[in-house]
Design brief:
This protein is an alpha/beta fold. The protein is 42% helix and 14% strand. The chain has a 7-stranded mixed β-sheet, sandwiched between helices.
Length: 315
């Protein structure tokens, strides 16, 4: 296999270690192990006998993580899986609870910077966008097979694109002549469809459409909801779940689940006594979103939109 270049700067590494509080003997799960940056720090802080399970959908990420974590290979287990399947992985490994879990959501720098993966329109490449290149439909499948109404829904719901219907109509018209196959073809079509899109600006008009297709192809929001709710179930009392989001759609899901699980009684206010019996399952460790420092953003501009939220499982 040819050598791979996997470059990805871990976001808010100091904050992740501070909030997850890794300790010797603890068991931790990095649900998006990527290049192994966060995982390595958790293993270092939990030495000499802390253990880490690292999951990722991307085989390239797992290969890099195995290389980075080689010095701690006896304490690190890597598995090709989605973080929403963490319960199945832990059951397979015979692990009954976690002291900490990390989810670093969204697309990695490596995926964005590898043209053949099709996540970016900076270079012309096949329209793929799959985080796991061996599974599921590609972005090309979606734009060439979904009907116009479904395309408009995807662009509006996942990309918050105001011109969703107009772009969808243009795609349907264009694919009647020939299928859309590359990132450049789609980006230029969107540029032409959006009013003022041909005028140079800081943000390319296709940015939201590409985000929407990526989220749809990888079912990202579904996995976030399942992964966060399921992650709380996997924590031991006092265990913490830390989630880093990169856009509002992800963060809304995380915030909603954390707040819902932190509530006690949810009975109507008119009832004199609680009838629901609900007790909080987590305590909010971060009442407000934690954001990267200005120094980190200067060093890694992609960290600019990152938001960290942390919850602790109640006893």
């Amino acid at each position: 296999m040819p050598a791979e270049i996997f470059a990805h700067l871990s976001v808010m590494p100091e904050e992740v270690v501070e909030y997850l509080r890794p300790r010797p003997g603890g068991v931790y799960l990095d649900g998006t192990v990527g290049g192994g940056g966060h995982a390595g720090l958790l293993l270092e802080a939990s030495a000499p006998d802390g253990r880490l399970i690292g999951l990722d959908r991307d085989p390239a990420a797992l290969r890099k993580a195995a290389e980075v974590l080689a010095p701690c290979a006896d304490r690190a287990l890597l598995r090709h899986a989605n973080f929403s399947e963490a319960d199945e992985v832990l059951a397979e490994l015979g692990i009954d609870g976690l002291d900490g879990m990390l989810l670093d959501l969204g697309v990695s720098s490596h995926q964005l910077d590898t043209p053949e993966r099709g996540f970016s329109f900076r270079e012309d490449a096949p329209l793929d966008m799959r985080m796991d290149p061996g599974a599921g439909e590609t972005a090309a499948d979606v734009v060439n097979e979904a009907d116009g109404r479904e395309l408009a829904r995807i662009f509006f719901e996942y990309g918050e694109e105001r011109w969703a219907r107009r772009i969808a109509r243009r795609i349907v018209d264009e694919r009647e002549r020939r299928p859309l196959a590359t990132t450049a073809e789609l980006a230029e079509l969107v540029r032409a469809a959006v009013p003022g899109g041909m005028i140079p600006s800081r943000v390319h008009p296709a940015t939201r459409v590409f985000q929407a297709l990526r989220i749809h192809v990888n079912r990202e929001l579904e996995h976030v909801a399942r992964g966060v709710a399921g992650g709380i179930d996997l924590l031991k009392p006092g265990g913490r779940l830390a989630v880093i989001s990169f856009h509002s759609l992800e963060d809304r899901i995380v915030k909603r689940i954390f707040r819902q699980e932190a509530k006690a009684c949810i009975c109507p206010p008119r009832l004199p006594l609680c009838a629901c019996g609900k007790v909080p399952r987590v305590e909010l460790v971060t009442r407000k979103a934690v954001r990267p420092s200005p120094a980190e953003v200067d060093a890694n501009p992609r960290a600019r939109s990152a938001i960290l939220r942390v919850a602790e499982r109640c006893s």
